[in-house]
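Bug #77: duplicate submission created two jobs. Keeping one. Sequence:
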Amino acid sequence: MISCRYVGGDCSSIGEREFDTVGQRAEFSEEIFREVVIGNAPFVTEEDFKRCGFTEEELEAFGPSGARVDPPQSFNDKLAMAQQMFRDVLARMLTNKDAVFAEVSDAGT
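Kept job's structure:
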């Protein structure tokens, strides 16, 4: 299982679950994680999310998409970093469809 966090701007539905809060946790099998990312749902691994440096206070105040009114630049910078991590993993997955996730997530780090 891959522990990951949602880093989207609005919301995404995966199965019957809706994700609409930055930092919202999920666990997917490697196969489902690959499908989710290739389907353009913005998730990053727990490890990548931690590297962004979000605080619990920031996530509580600005994580929910409906509550994200005028967040501080520091939050926006962290969110931009997390979303770039997602785009990087997506690009590697699309380039090397046969790679196992560990190879995809370690590439370029």
